[in-house]
Design a protein that fits this description.
With 472 residues, the protein is α/β, with parallel strands linked by helices. The protein folds into 2 domains: 11-25 and 390-465, Immunoglobulin-like; 32-386, TIM Barrel (Alpha-Beta Barrel). It has 11 helices and 16 strands. The strands form 3 sheets. An 8-stranded parallel beta sheet has the order 2-9-8-7-6-5-4-3.
Length: 472
């Protein structure tokens, strides 16, 4: 965004400064923020620039999706090759090694999601890459993963969106009952056992990684609703009573992708088993009921491991680029305000190419995500400048409440809040805000404005200035 030259404070502005109160944000907790740049991190040609950009943006943790099929020997063969499946040397780790080594050298946390597609020989009918992956084969693969990456990985997660037919099959029986939950339970138990066999005494493994919406009873290539999926995995009926034949799962946390629609972060889906960012309480309650039934341990945290706001040119779910920056910050504040949320996330750095409508991937089509900080051609969106210094402004009566984060900081710092008043084209200084040790801040002000923005200069004199943000 262009930089604005600010005039000297007028007497009215001085009065406004006195009316504004700025204090460090009283966060209910600190939350990690994972960044997933997608293929840009796994491509040796694009990785250096992507890493440099992420450093500038204040990234300290990344999510990497590890495809079993991509590293396995003879993945297209219907016959299992002869090899020692628990030996890391039997696999082609390729650019995954380079990506994780880069993260390790920078001190970034790594969330490694081990997922499909899988080798054809590891599926039930040996005809595709998704249908009923073999638990024993997966356990051996996870042993190799654990031995290979060990302490380079801070958190493991098992499967990406296992309640979605693009990632696991079958989802449903002919009698309209979910099948994917029981398949996933077997994979989770096997994957956890594999990591323990690798020598990880108490591996931190997230379950879930669920897509946000779906169905409770249907057939065909449709998602299973996330809470219906959760109940199925944990052997719970609709009243959250557990089958006596199922033991408690050793999940460290529950991972979820709380995407919303173009209606915005406060959207409430009508189905009670769907969980978008605006209804995180549904997931909290479901996990509490599951813990009460001794299906999981009590109080496990929620990790929102994939999130983004679609912007235009996505014609199905896209909002304006300016609105994307606003909604993304609101969603992060919603997550930050929930004491059970241990992590938020950003997906992607750069937009995918345009694809088909939602649901196309279940039928073999391509669905592109326009959730990036940049357009597909590399041009920056407003979100690129907003993401390092997110800002949310709300109004109650005559009082404006502001919440924000200085993401690239390494400790408490100070930033400048600017306001544009009605009838003015220029911004004036509203207040200097002081963050807590994690970079969060909040303030209240009686100064009426049309738009606000945040300016911060790093200790190395790098200037960050967010885009204009109106009242949400």
């Amino acid at each position: 965004m262009p930089r604005l030259r600010l005039s000297l404070l007028s007497l009215a502005a001085a009065i406004a400064l006195a009316a504004a109160s700025a204090t460090p944000a009283a966060a209910s907790h600190g939350q990690a923020v994972f960044f997933e740049p997608g293929t840009m991190l796994l491509n040796p040609k694009t990785r250096p620039k992507a890493v440099s950009q992420m450093q500038h943006l204040g990234v300290r943790a990344i999510r990497v999706e590890l495809s079993w099929r991509e590293v396995a020997p003879s993945p297209n063969s219907r016959t299992r090759p002869s090899f020692e499946a628990t030996n890391p040397a039997a696999y082609r780790w390729g650019e995954y090694d380079a990506a994780l080594e880069t993260a390790h050298s920078l001190g970034w946390q790594v969330l490694l999601t081990v997922t499909s597609p899988v080798p054809k020989w590891a599926t039930s009918a040996h005809k595709d890459y998704l249908t009923r992956p073999d638990d024993r084969d997966f356990q051996e693969f996870m042993t190799a993963v654990g031995r290979h990456y060990g302490s380079e990985v801070s958190l493991y997660a098992i499967w990406n969106e296992p309640n979605h037919p693009a990632f696991l099959l079958p989802q449903w029986s002919a009698h309209r009952q979910p099948l994917s939950p029981s398949i996933y339970r077997g994979l989770f138990v096997a994957g956890y056992a594999g990591l323990k066999a690798a020598g990880l005494t108490n591996p931190k493994v997230l379950m879930g990684e669920t897509a946000p919406t779906g169905y409770d009873h249907t057939t065909g290539l449709h998602d299973v609703a996330p809470l219906a999926f959760l109940r199925g995995v944990l052997c719970l009926n609709s009243h959250y009573r557990k089958s006596s034949s199922c033991q408690e799962l050793p999940a460290y946390g529950y991972a979820h992708h709380a995407y919303t629609t173009a209606a915005g972060p406060f959207y409430r889906p009508p189905s009670g088993d769907d969980v978008t960012i605006g209804v995180l309480g549904r997931l909290v309650r479901a996990l509490d009921l599951a813990a009460r039934a001794h299906a999981i341990r009590s109080g496990i945290p929620i990790y929102l491991t994939e999130f983004g706001v679609q912007s235009k040119p996505n014609r199905y779910l896209g909002v304006s680029p300016a609105k994307q920056a606003e909604d993304d910050a609101i969603a992060e504040k919603i997550a930050w305000s929930n004491p059970r949320v241990a992590a938020f996330s950003q997906y992607l750095l750069r937009d995918d190419p345009l694809g088909g409508p939602p649901g196309s991937s279940a039928h073999g089509g391509y669905v592109g995500f326009q959730t990036g900080l940049e357009y597909n051609d590399g041009r920056a969106k407003p979100l690129y400048n907003a993401w390092p210094v997110p800002l949310v402004v709300t109004k109650s009566g005559h009082t404006y409440s502001l919440w924000g984060l200085i993401r690239p900081t390494h400790g408490a710092t100070s930033a400048t809040v600017l306001v544009r008043r009605k009838g003015s084209r220029r911004y004036s200084r509203l207040a200097t805000v002081h963050t807590d040790s994690l970079g969060y801040w909040s303030m209240h002000s009686s100064v009426a404005g049309l738009e606000w923005r945040v300016r911060w200069v790093s200790p190395t004199h790098t200037r960050y200035e967010g885009p204009p943000i109106p009242v949400s």
